[in-house]
Amino acid sequence: MRCDRVWHHARLATMAGDGLGEVEHGVIASHNGRIRYAGPAADAPTFDATERIDCAGRWITPGLIDCHTHLVYGGDRAHEFELRLEGASYEEIARAGGGIVSTMQATRAATKAELLASALPRLDALLAEGVTTVEIKSGYGLDLANETKQLRTARALADERAVRVETSFLGAHALPPGRDADDYIREVVDEMLPAIADAELADAVDAFCEGIGFTAEQTERVFAAAAAHGLPVKLHADQLSDLGGSGLAARFHALSADHIEYASDASLDAMADAGTVATLLPGAFYFVRETKLPPIEGLRARHIGIALATDCNPGTAPMTSILLVMNMAATLFRLTVPECLTGVTRNAAAALGLADQIGTLEPGKACDLAIWDIERPAELVYRIGFNPLHQRIFNGAPT
After folding, report:
1. Tens of pLDDT, residues 191-214
2. Of all helices (H) and strands (E), which one includes residue 287?
3. Dihedrals φ, ψ of 125, to 5°?
4. Contact 306, 346 (CB under 8 A)
5. How many CA atoms lie within 13 A of 18 on its CB side?
């Protein structure tokens, strides 16, 4: 078999099939950026390889996937965090010009070059932990020019680093000051979304369906417009209350419903029927001191795929560690090691509509690998503040 590279003397967590898909004596071969073989060395064909890499018994997983981030934004909100620790409420901070409004103002004031420069260190932190694919949302511009600027910056990150970037248009994230909600949604639907779709700047459309965001009816208008433009949808749903957002997302066959702490049984049934992934965000749960746990047992009982992500954003999840996300999911939500690792590989790929391209070590998929100095995969979930990444491979090439 002709191939560019072969990684041998490796242990594999292929993430294909049930569990971790462990192979104790494994080998991976790639050609033109794609996996040609991944499995037991004893079953491997003869390789005609340009390069052979001895992994010295290290573990290889698929490259990790962060499927929900707000990585591109201006400014920060560390001062607001300090005020909250001193007793100020979120409402008091918002009335004083803080919250999403302050990030909107900083994002609008920043140039594309400034946004790119501030986003790169956050991206680099993710890549250093084995991430090879990242989703990035807009949602801090809240007008066409600045939403477009955010999305173009997100796309530009893939020119600066060896990473796959998926973009989501989140114009329906918050209401700009002084605007009427219905009028603003009309602008999102009739002006922003068509322009962004025509420019091919978004891979999906997202919204924030919540009491402090937009109603189910307003969200439905956004989703109907997305469908008219051939764009899949995902949703910030049922984070603070049950507005039926998860069920609404399922009605539109959303790729994922995210947060979902308050999702009802009826909404979970709809998600199961639609194949909508549940993306859990334990960093936000921790940072805002939530107490309502996501319906883990309901997800398990219905065999709904569980993905995990950082939710990297300046207000409620200023985190850039996908490894810490897994530990938080295990500790706070009681997910198992296989559930955590599946959540940042196979199910995260499904949450982006990329399950046929990434997320498992299988022939035909992109050769995105994370090679680890560990004795067992559980270490990736168990340890805190420890990064055992040996090497990251993107599209078959070391990075």
Report:
1. 999 999 999 999 999 999 999 899
2. helix 282-287
3. -65, -40
4. no
5. 1
Q: Which sign does the torsion angle of CA 358, 28, 342, 334 carry?
A: negative
Amino acid of residue 16 = A
Distance of alpha carbon 135 from the chain centroid: 5
DSSP secondary structure of 355-399: TTTSSS--TTSB--EEEE--SSTTHHHH-SS---EEEEEETTEE-
- Identify whether the C-beta of residue 17 lies closer than 8 Å to the C-beta of residue 346: no
Torsions phi, psi for 141 (to 5 deg): -90, -50
Contact 115, 150 (CB under 8 A): yes
Q: pLDDT tens across 347-358, in order?
A: 999 999 999 999
Q: For residues 128 and 320, give the distance between their C-alpha atoms in angstroms, rounded to a whole number.
A: 10
Q: Which pairing describes strands 389-394 and 64-66: parallel, antiparallel, or unpaired?
A: unpaired
| Average pLDDT score over residue span 334-342 | 98
What's the pTM value of the predicted model, to 2 decimals?
Answer: 0.97
Angle CA(203)–CA(206)–CA(210) in degrees, nearest 5? 175
Q: Which tokens in the block code for residue 218?
A: 């307003």
HSE-CB at 150 with a 13 A cutoff on CA atoms is: 33
> Does 97 score more than 80 pLDDT?
no
Strand pairing of 22-31 and 34-40?
antiparallel
Could you give the angle at which helices 100-109 and 144-160 cross, rounded to 10 degrees? Answer: 70
Residue 185 amino acid letter: I
301 alpha-carbon distance from chain centroid? 24
DSSP string, 130-196: TEEEEEEE--SS-SHHHHHHHHHHHHHHHHHSS-EEEEEEEEETSPPTT--HHHHHHHIIIIIHHHH
Q: How many other CB atoms sit within 10 Å of the CB of residue 275?
A: 13
For residue 343, what pLDDT is reported? Answer: 98
Q: Which amino acid is at 212?
A: I
pLDDT band at 91 (very low <50, low <70, confident <90, very high): low
- How confident is the prediction for the chain on average, in pLDDT? 97
Alpha carbon 108 to its chain centroid, in Å, reads 24
Structure-token pair, residue 300: 């398990």
